[in-house]
């Protein structure tokens, strides 16, 4: 069974976390309009947030990724102030309910990232734009010294699914990530995690080509995050809906693990944790 170049370590505010086995990152959407209706936990409902946080932890999630700005095509614009207000409400609950959890902030705004780390105790920044939507992001995360998920996206959230095109999707995404990784390192960034960006400026065929060649991304010698939970690459292929995409998600998560993914970003933590346990058991037997 293929092995990735782990273990990697992440510096979480002075605490070292070792990625010596796959980790599940549970999604906490404090938005009213995320693409998967079942994941919406608006910031105006603290008890719903509390239940979701407890669910992530009880089902074995070690990371919680908090998003306050839906990036699905057609989603409403969210001001930096509103994004911060939503995140502040959620972070307070997370600290109360899951003090040991690794807190990731899903934002492309440098000022929001800085406030969440310096004032609200976040550990990690997850940027869907790989620093392209806010030119200050790389300098900010480098200065903060926090781990950073660098994702590939073609275009912007509003344009990414308007006829995305590649001559060679694997080579182009890999090259783009390599260039951005080097630029972040030049700014002093460390603890970089890469994400090919499934569904962000890719057709269904592009997504499956990336999954088939996922092992190629180990060339960058960095931890690899995969986020395909209930996405259109599943439900459009199967002619279903996000609500019916759990089985397909688990299949693809398992394939990603077999190809060396270190972190799975998911809505359904229990099934992802079970996939991790099964794949790890198979590795023990080799």
Report how far apart the termini are: 7 Å
In which order are the strands of the major sheet placed? 8-7-6-5-4-3-10-9
The structural class is alpha/beta
Task: Please give the number of β-strands.
Answer: 10
Please state the CA-atom Rg, rounded to the nearest Å: 17 Å
Beta-strand percent range: 15-25%
Largest sheet: 8 strands, parallel
Look at the structure and give the mean pLDDT.
91
Question: H/E element string?
Answer: EEEHEHEHEHEHEHEHHEH
Gross geometry: globular
Commentary on this structure:
The chain is α/β, with parallel strands linked by helices. Helix content is 38%, strand content 16%. The chain is built from nine helices and ten strands. The strands form two sheets. The chain has an eight-stranded parallel sheet with strand order 8-7-6-5-4-3-10-9. Strand 6, helix 4 and strand 7 form a beta-alpha-beta unit. The radius of gyration is 17 Å and the shape is globular. The N terminus is likely disordered.
């Amino acid at each position: 069974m293929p092995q990735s170049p782990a273990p990697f370590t992440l510096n979480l505010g002075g605490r070292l976390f070792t990625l010596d086995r796959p980790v599940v990152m549970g999604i906490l959407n404090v938005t009213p309009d995320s693409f998967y209706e079942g994941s919406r936990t608006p910031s105006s409902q603290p008890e719903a947030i509390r239940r979701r946080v407890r669910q992530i932890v009880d089902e074995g999630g070690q990371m919680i990724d908090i998003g306050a700005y839906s990036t699905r095509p057609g989603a409403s614009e969210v001001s930096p102030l509103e994004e911060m207000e939503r995140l502040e409400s959620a972070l307070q609950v997370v600290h109360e309910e899951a003090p040991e959890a690794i807190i990731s902030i899903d934002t492309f705004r440098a000022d929001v990232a800085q406030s969440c780390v310096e004032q609200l105790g976040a550990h990690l920044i997850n940027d869907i734009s790989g620093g392209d939507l806010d030119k200050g992001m790389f300098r900010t995360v480098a200065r903060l010294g926090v781990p950073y998920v660098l994702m590939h996206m073609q275009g912007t959230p509003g344009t990414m699914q308007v006829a995305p095109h590649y001559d060679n999707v694997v080579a182009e995404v890999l090259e783009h990530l390599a260039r951005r990784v080097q630029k972040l390192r030049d700014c002093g960034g460390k603890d970089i995690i890469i994400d090919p960006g499934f569904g962000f400026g890719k057709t269904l065929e592009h997504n499956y080509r990336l999954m088939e060649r996922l092992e190629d991304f180990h060339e960058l010698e960095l931890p690899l995050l995969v986020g395909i939970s209930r996405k259109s690459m599943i439900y459009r292929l199967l002619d279903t809906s996000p609500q019916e995409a759990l089985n397909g998600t688990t299949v693809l998560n398992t394939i990603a693990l077999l190809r060396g993914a270190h972190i799975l970003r998911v809505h359904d933590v229990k099934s992802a944790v079970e996939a991790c346990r099964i794949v790890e058991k198979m590795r023990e037997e080799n």
